[in-house]
Amino acid sequence: MSSQDSSATTVEEVWERLQIVITSTIGEMRLKRWFQNVTPLEVTDGVLQLEVPSRTALDWIENNYGEILSLAARQAGLESIQLIPQRGSSRVSAEQFDSESGAINRRPPGRGSAVVVRELEFAPDPPNGTDPADHVTSWTPNARISVVSGGAAGLRKDLTLERFVVGTSNRVAYSAALEILRTPGLSFNPLFLHGGPGLGKTHLLQAITKKFFIQGEREIRYVQCESFVHQFVRALRQRSLDRFRSSFRELKVLVIDDVQMIAGKRSSQQELLETVDAIAIQGGQVLLASDAPPKKLVHLHQQLQNRFSAGLVARVDPPDMETRVSILKQEVMRSGVQVPSEVLRHIADTVRLSVRELLGALVRVVAECELSGSEVTMLRTRAILEPISAVSKRRIVVEDIVERVAVRWGVPPEEILSRSRTRNTSMARSVATYLARVLTDYSLAEIGEQLGGRSHATTSSSYRKIQRLISRDDSLRQEVERLVRDLRGG
User: Fold this and answer.
1) What is the average pLDDT score of the chain?
2) Which residues does 254 contact at the CB level (< 8 Å), separation at least 6?
3) Domains of the chain as residue ranges with CATH
4) Is the pTM of this model over 0.85?
């Protein structure tokens, strides 16, 4: 057997081992859908090169399966994985995103500009969740994925403002984004979006970043908060802080996603605070997103909480039924597939909490019907979604109830949990008690504990009070029914 044949056998074996790891995470159907046409090329110095059939496939694999590939690489003892599109699958523009940071730079076209190697590092957490900047000498990156690409690093092509479906759950965030595009640095600075995973925060942030680029702004950057921390740590280690700070603090627009990742990292928090202030002083715009509002980010420094809250804090909630149906209708129109309206409504009724999971359910139904050669029908859809139907329904918690009631009654959530006995606060607390009893599996004693440590007798009294009132007060009954609908996502 020649050395070339031996190498080919080796790379095939490595790829087979990786596929086993990938399949255990994403399942065989997704593996076949996105990886069946991926071709292993060679393994050199611990780097596995994989050829993908198109730029679309490359972008999808990078955005959705990058961390899975990184994990598989580490388990296989590889240094990195390199994704390469087939030659001729795309043409590279002279205007590209910086390969390391995600900032947009203009590169002159010419010899050697055909492809750009993009390094995406996946580093382990520092000890005990502390700031890696406090452990510079011991913290080192692990396996990474290199992507040979000419596209926009870190930004998905499909996340545009035109494809962002607006409803009651995200209207404030969307309107604020449009205003920022008109008057950056003036209207809401910073804009802080928060809400659960898969609700569209990343979609909106990436869409705004692209829109700024289309409008001619070049000093912009979209970055994951974890990447900001890693770049800061690397700058400390390499003694290149001045260059790092210049690359961020001189931006006209800075967009940071998943900012909750910085909680507990003292040095990185101080650096981010100074960066946000520096951009604001120069008239620049900062946009942030997190899974929780600033005041509820555990281990976030008070100064940073205050700075994040100084602009507009906008919550993105799960979409209501009609918005979910609109999202699905837009997706089937874009994809050109035929799905009956009743099927779309069934999917929307089954998956309520996450837009990402909603679209994933649609893909699953269409893909399984295509693979089996059958039409998309209600009967097939019910059978396909049955395994996820129960777990996809919204799990309502007392904290969500308190926040919704607080908004309706115009009181801070912490006041509902306090010992305040004002008439308005007492009514809001009683409504929250009633809703918690109706919408959750908690006992009255457990509800009382979560509502500020109240006794079973007090909680029971509040529940019965609202029961009596809604039987004779139509206005209150309608208000409670509206809250029930909102919390159930219907």
Assistant:
1) 78
2) 220, 221, 223, 248, 275, 276, 279, 284, 285, 286, 287
3) 3-149 (3.30.300.180), 171-315 (3.40.50.300), 321-392 (1.10.8.60), 398-488 (1.10.1750.10)
4) no
